[in-house]
Amino acid sequence: MNQGARWVVVALAATIGGPSNDPDDSMVVDKASAADEVVVIVDGQMKSDRCLNDSMFVGSGPVTVGDLVKPTKCPAETTIFSKGHALTTVRPPWSKDQDAIVLQMGPSLREVNVDVYVVSTSDRAEDWARTDLDRARTLYDQNRTGLTFTETKFVTSASLSEAQVATIGTNCRQADGLKSSTLYASDRINVYFVPSIMIDYDFTNRGYNCFEKKPGNTDGAPNIIYISVLRHSPTTLAHELGHGLGLQGAAGHTGEEGTTYIEGFESVNIMWTGLDSDEAAAKDQFSLGQGFRMNADERSWLNRTKASSSPGPGSRKCHPSGPKNKIPCPPLAFDLP
Ligand SMILES: [Zn+2]
User: Fold this and answer.
1) Which value, in Å, is the radius of gyration of the alpha carbons in the chain?
2) Which domain holds residue 249?
3) Residue 280 domain flag
4) Are 85 and 119 in a shared domain?
5) N or C: fewer beta carbons within 10 Å in the chain?
6) Which residue ranges in the chain fall short of pLDDT 70?
7) Is the separation of the CB atoms in 239 and 143 below 8 Å?
């Protein structure tokens, strides 16, 4: 697609427009490059009073969006998804007149600080820790989440004492102790590459995010992640980071062979679980609905302080998988066709 490519209108024809003499509004994303691969989602109120909900536009415009007016009853916000830029939500000043809205691209990718501890002494563990983080960066950018991961600490197994290894342990039951040690930072995501994760005596996970409140993990810790070197898979870290960023509970796992799945998802989705090694390694998708929640859902670790994340969408309680109320969050499976 060339720079300045025309908009591709994906879901608009049925919701707005129609024969009318009313002036249609237009939108353009300023200074977007082809590499940004912009996708815009519009919620708003039409002159007819109908609510426009999750209309998707692919490209940077300009595009005609029908006659949007100052909202009185509909959620009205526009979200810009792209590669290489933070996710941005704005509320354009729609009026009863013919509006020509110029949207600005978000700043560069929002950085999430990650401390990495390689506990396993396996000679591949350090390489895997680095390549997994790199893969997570690629997957999060490629799927337009607007997020990237900055390695703020990288601790090798050679520098950890036996006592420190014992403090880190092999599962979330040790989170309380770990949190009061120097092997944890509350303002970062802490990832521990351990030899294996022991949850039950006969069960071992590929990865484990400690967001659930349980004995030994009193408050829950979405910023503590264990990764198994024994059962290593290159997409596990990206998956566990997704749990930390709010994809939990009913919006957590998108599917698992033979049990449940959320309509609209396939096994290439990074939050699908229980796959064999080859299938797990091939996972490469987050939906736009998942990326939106990572930034906006109140459960996302990014929103732990409840502070509004300007220019992000701010913290809100997103429905698990579909629009069941007026809080604007696209459905979990909402994505490019
Ligand atoms: Zn999971």
Assistant:
1) 22
2) 110-289
3) yes
4) no
5) C
6) 1-22, 200-203, 306-314, 322-325
7) no
Is 336 buried (19+), middle (13-18) or exposed (0-12) by CB count in 10 A? middle
Domain annotation covers residue 317: no
Each residue's pLDDT tens digit, 239-264? 999 999 999 998 999 998 777 788 99
107, 113, 118, 123 alpha-carbon torsion, rounded to 10°: 10
Please tell me whether residues 195 and 57 are part of one structural domain: no
Task: Tell me the sheet residues that pair with 25.
Answer: 66
Q: Work out how many domains the chain is built from and give that number.
A: 2
Q: What is the DSSP-derived secondary structure letter of residue 102?
A: E
CA distances for 24 relative to 7, 52, 66, 77, 99, angstroms: 16, 14, 5, 18, 8
Residue 66 belongs to a domain: yes
Distance 174 CA to ligand 1 centre (A): 19
- Ligand 1 centroid to Cα of residue 205, in Å, is 9
Same-domain status, 34 and 182: no
Domain match, 143 and 86 both: no
pTM: 0.92
Distances (CA, A) of 211 to 215, 216, 305: 12, 12, 16
The answer to whether residue 315 is domain-embedded is no
Q: 272 C-alpha to center of ligand 1: Å?
A: 8
The total of other beta-carbon atoms located within 10 Å of residue 308's CB is 11
Residues 90 and 170 in one domain: no
